[in-house]
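Here we describe the complex-level prediction in full. Unlike the single-chain runs in Section 2.1, the two entities below were treated as one system.
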Amino acid sequence: MDLLLLLEQTLNGLTLGVMLFLLAAGLTLIFGVMDVINLAHGSLYMAGAFASATVVARTGSFALGVLSGIAVGAMFALLLEVALMRRLYAREHLDQVLATFAVILIANETVKIVFGPQPIFARTPVELSDTVEVLPGVPFPAYRLAIIAVGLIAGLFLWWLIGRTRLGMVIRAGTTHRSLVQALGVNIEVLFALVFAIGGALAGLAGAMAGPILAVQVGMGEQILILAFVVVVIGGLGSVRGAFVAALLVGLTDTLSRALLPVLIRDLLPPVAADQVAANLGSVAVYLAMAVVLAFKPRGLFPAHG
Amino acid sequence: MAKAALLASAGARLELALALAGLALLLAAPVLLALLKADYLLPTVTRMVAYGLAAAALDLVLGYGGLVSFGHGAFLGIGAYVAGALLHHAAHGTPILSWPVAVPGSMEVTLILPAAATVSGLLAFCIGAISLRTRGVYFIMITLAFAQTVYFLVLAIPEYGGTDGLMLPRGWDVAGMRVAADAPRFWFALLLLVLFVAAMRRAMESRYGLALRGARQNERRLKALGYPVFSIRLLAFTVSGAATGVAGALLADLALFVSPDLLSWQRSGELIIMVVLGGQGTLIGPVVGAFVLLALEEELSAVTEHWMLVLGPILLLCVLLFRRGLWGQVSRAA
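The structure predicted for the assembly as a whole is:
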């Protein structure tokens, strides 16, 4: 394993990491503020990806595609909040799991009817289709660098929104002292809807950005959703900062273990078997990391609820 | 007070009567189906019985314990893979393990089922020992994560087919004799289900069961009374995992195929749906839920390819409106 390959894989890991962060940030806010578990968050991501791929195919403008991804994610989230989630805030987690599981079924089947079961093509924008030499001799796709940049910008924006604005202050207060915030006269219904919309917008953005590098297809949301949950849990429910750290950790662990394991066990097993074993053991690394974190810190790395 | 007790016992009597009627119907199912010239449905009903066992097992944790395990697919799948591996190696004459001790395959059900129960029970004990340290959403997520771990670990074993699953050359033997017909296979599964439900209904009325249910309602009070809440829950989780593994073994023998799908998180979700749909905390309800969900899937997928679009809203309505589940509605109607 040479260092250049390691660097390339590290950048790939960061790409996955920031995508996970975009999803996990919304999830963790929704968890933290409303104490709701939303399995359908992956469907928002899928909606964003399909909306953006369609718009890009029609108009040819990538920027327009990303914007529509964000808009569709936010609107879908609002719809979900007003029509369903509102009724589930007071319920047990079990009911929330089931209801949002049902939403996944409905969303996946609807997309399958409209777009068909095959993956649809999402174009990489022309300006970003080249590679950039991040170091002499290490070419890296410009588009993936753009994803990392977008993720970091979104992270900065969230840090500003949550740490520096009045809305953010209310959200933070909501994660720690919900009933007190309500008693102080904050319109909690509007706040909840807003948090959901922010989460939806971030998920839509993630979907739009993911389109060109991953397959835009039915079920794409669930694959990444479970990883996003792992991120949220490792980071600590309700903590955006925790989600950021954990997302990079999970992204790097996943990518690096998949890249390094085949090299490590290639000497032990026949090549075909080695690839199968390595690909699957690589996936295990993330979940093991989570189990280890939770075994020692049952409330995650940065618990928001003190 | 006396009236309430009377009402409760009337409900319990109706529940018992209905359960016995259902059981009688099930016992006669092979004969009835043969009369209706629908023998081909018997494996489907056997599958429902196996899933009923898994759902009832999950009910111990979910309904009585109040712990939302999103990882029971792992136990279902491991039970199936243990049975599958034993049969696979017995058919090929290869050992499962050659080191540190040689373990041969086996065709014998009296060995396969205890093996499936032991391995999945042990797995449940280990997963439970870590997961039960957490609460609420964390518990849901950590059980899901462990199930995913098991899923990928099993896929990593080239011998057992990876994503293609494991085809079995033949089913198991009972006392050295091959089970050739569908009916005995069905009655055997039904026997296991009835034994499990009856035993667990008793256990849940015992001191232990009351403690498990008490911990759901007020953990702190139970602890203050000196009950070892963690151990009580761990025992329920282990028994539940073991029984779910037996259900998985039944499914493997029935289909002569072990699909990695059994280990998937969607399967864990379906098991939860069965429990809630039927009525949690009743043991019989989840069995009803399993029958209803599988029948719905079967019927809807025959009508339309997009059956999930029908199942989804049905599920939503059930969650929003019928919180006690089907069986809960029945026993309340009395």
